[in-house]
Amino acid sequence: MANLDLNLNLLATLDVLLSEGSVNRTAARFGVSQAAISVQLAKLRSHFGDDIFVPRGRRLVATPFAETLREPVRELIEQAQRVIGLRQGFDPATTGRDFHIHAGDIDSILLLSHVVRGLHEVAPNIRLFIHGSVAAASMIDFFIRPVGLHTPEYASCVLYTDHYCVLADAEHPALAGSVSHSDYFAANHIVRHAGHTGAPSFEAATMARLGNVRKVAQVVDHYGSIPPMLVGTRYLTTVPSYFARQMAKSFPLKFVELPFEFPGQTILLQWHPHLAGDMAANWLRTFIVESASELYGCEQAGKLFSE
C-alpha cells in the first residue's frame, strides 16, 4: 500500500496552486502567509520527488508530472467537499466553510455585498471568495450569470430580472424628466466593456445588434468606475436600473428611461454539480436567493430555470 503521508490540507494547497499558479495568490485564498504555502509546497515536492512547479517570470508553471495530478486532485477535493457537506447537524451559526463565487461587478457591488452583510450576522464562519475575473470553472462553487452567458449543464435558478436605463449627472440639461431619442444619440457616452478581454458587455453588444450607434467617449471595464466619472460632466451611460437607482443615492446623479425599446436581463444563480447533497451549500444557495428577493423583490426568485 502506498505511503499516505499527504493530508487533505496539502492536497487542497496543491489544487489551488495548480489553479492560481502563484504562491502569493494561493496564500491569499487560504488567508495564510506565503511562507506557510512555501513550506507546504516543499512537502509536496519531497513526497512526489518532483519540482511540481518551476518559475517562469512572476508565475509558477506546473511541471509535466504536476499536470497529470491536476484532474485527480481536483476530483479528490470535490469528493471530500461532498463528504464534508453530508455531515449531520449543519449549523450556519457555527459551521466554517469556504465557497467560491463568480459574479460580475454589479452583482458584487449590490447583491453580494448584501449577502456578506447578512452572513456576518447569521453565519460568521462561512467565507466567500468572490471572483470577478476569469477563473477555472472547477474551482467555482456558484456562478451569478445572465441568461445567455450561463452554463446549460449546471443547475440554475432565477435571482432577479432588470431593465436598462440612462444614468447621468443630476444637472444634465438633456435629462429633464426624460431624454429624447435625438439627445441620447447626440451625447457622449461612457461604455463598459468586459474586463481584460475587451469584449463588449451585454448592453454594448445589444446596442450594436440593434444598430444603435452612439458616440463612445470613454470605455471602462467595471460598471463601478462609471458613477464618479459622470459627476459634473455631460456624459451619459446606460446601465441596469437597480444599479442606477443605488448609485443615484450615493452620487449627485439621476436616471431616466431609455428613449427606445431595449431588452432586459434575467440573472441566474448556478451551482457546480459537485455541490449536490452538500448541506452547507444548499443553505448558502437559499440565503443568496433570499437576499436577492429582499433587494429586487422578484417574484420568480428561486424558481428553477431550464432552457
Q: How would the blueprint of this fold be written?
A:
Elements: H1 8-20, H2 23-30, H3 34-48, E1 53-56, E2 59-62, H4 64-85, E3 97-102, H5 105-109, H6 111-122, E4 126-131, E5 142-146, E6 155-162, E7 164-169, H7 181-186, E8 188-194, E9 199-200, H8 202-209, E10 215-220, H9 226-230, E11 236-240, H10 241-250, E12 253-257, E13 265-271, H11 279-296
Helix pairs in contact: 1-2, 1-3, 1-4, 2-3, 6-11
Q: Pairing-aware structural class of the strands and helices? A: alpha/beta
Any idea what the CATH architecture of the largest domain is?
3-Layer(aba) Sandwich
Termini separation? 48 Å
Could you list the spans in which at least 5 consecutive residues all have pLDDT below 50? none
Shape: elongated
CATH T-level fold name of the largest domain: D-Maltodextrin-Binding Protein, domain 2
Radius of gyration: 23 Å
Q: What series of H and E elements makes up the topology?
A: HHHEEHEHHEEEEHEEHEHEHEEH
Strand order of the largest sheet: 4-3-5-13-6
- The CATH homologous superfamily of the largest domain is termed Periplasmic binding protein-like II
| CATH class wording of the largest domain | Alpha Beta
β-strand number: 13
How many domains make up the 3D coordinates?
Answer: 3
Number of helices: 11
Mean pLDDT: 86
Helical fraction equals: 25-40%
Percent of residues in β-strands = 15-25%
Biggest β-sheet: count, sense, barrel? 5 strands, mixed
